[in-house]
Recover the amino acids of this structure.
């Protein structure tokens, strides 16, 4: 697989500084029960990288010291980390909001039979990937049978009180190919109408995310001769107003080893924080957080500012 890192480092993306830290986003490892075409992590069933218990406890310590409001858990499938439930319980005991970025099908994996009940009982907010309401599109991006298993998981979550009630259930849309997401508000209406009519499913919000030209998706673009055109599309649709709201300005990203980055995408490109002359680890954050520090940027950052904008919380502009 061809790496796009060298093609993204030289950039004219506007300089930015962090405004604060209200979220720690932790990648608990690259193991996943799926291998999606758009995955910027190259996650899959054969990956073995996983955050260990000491790093999990260090993450909780840093969150407690700085009273961080939100813990955002990602992977891979974060639930497959053996310390996932310990981390969730510890964060909830601190009063943190916990977001589980769930691929839905993991709820039906062997050994995870009670996972949905655990998430509901812990009051965890679920942000679930569902790139389309149509079976053909989902299976094309995520694998045969994924749509049916995802629908079964959503029905199970609805039965536990997720969607339209006290338990938050958001869905995530990614384009199938090298295009920008459609307007989030209109697409959310389509999702809600179609999922309710076809499957009786309800959810709270739809989050639209642009695919970033890195890792697996970047390699696909290169293989099809679409990399330069896609970057040009992102840059052509750059909206300066989105710079105020991109996730890196209020978030720190932590990899499975405990090293700290500006965002999950920089983590995958191995672009360390500019806040220090050495690579920062969670251990370094027990004293102070890198507030108002400059943010490392690359050409991929245009994926977060193009059109309506794109972040882990969905579109940035109405």
């Amino acid at each position: 697989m061809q790496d796009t890192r060298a093609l993204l480092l030289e950039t004219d993306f506007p300089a930015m500084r962090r405004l604060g830290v209200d979220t720690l986003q932790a990648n608990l490892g690259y193991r996943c029960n799926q291998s999606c075409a758009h995955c910027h992590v190259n996650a899959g069933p054969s990956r073995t990288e996983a955050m260990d218990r000491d790093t999990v406890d260090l993450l909780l310590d840093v969150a407690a010291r700085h009273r961080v409001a939100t813990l955002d858990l990602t992977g891979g499938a974060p639930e497959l980390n053996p310390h996932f439930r310990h981390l969730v319980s510890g964060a909830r005991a601190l009063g943190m909001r916990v977001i589980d970025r769930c691929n839905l099908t993991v709820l039906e994996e062997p050994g995870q039979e009670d996972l949905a009940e655990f998430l509901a009982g812990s009051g965890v907010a679920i942000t679930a990937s569902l790139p389309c309401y149509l079976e053909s599109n989902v299976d094309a991006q995520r694998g045969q049978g994924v749509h049916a298993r995802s629908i079964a998981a959503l029905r199970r979550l609805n039965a536990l009180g997720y969607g339209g009630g006290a338990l938050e259930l958001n869905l995530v849309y990614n384009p199938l190919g090298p295009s920008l997401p459609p307007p989030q508000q209109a697409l959310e209406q389509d999702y809600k109408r179609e999922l309710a009519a076809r499957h009786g499913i309800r959810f709270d919000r739809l989050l639209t995310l642009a695919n970033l030209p890195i890792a697996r998706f970047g390699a696909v673009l290169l293989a099809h001769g679409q990399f330069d055109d896609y970057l040009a599309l992102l840059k052509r649709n750059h909206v300066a107003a989105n710079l105020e709201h991109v996730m890196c300005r209020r978030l720190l990203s932590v990899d499975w080893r405990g090293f700290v980055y500006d965002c999950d995408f920089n983590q995958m490109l191995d672009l360390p924080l500019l806040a220090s002359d050495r690579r920062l680890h969670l251990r370094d954050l027990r004293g102070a957080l890198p507030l108002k520090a400059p943010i490392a940027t690359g050409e991929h950052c245009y994926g977060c500012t193009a059109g309506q904008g794109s972040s882990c919380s969905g579109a940035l502009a109405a």
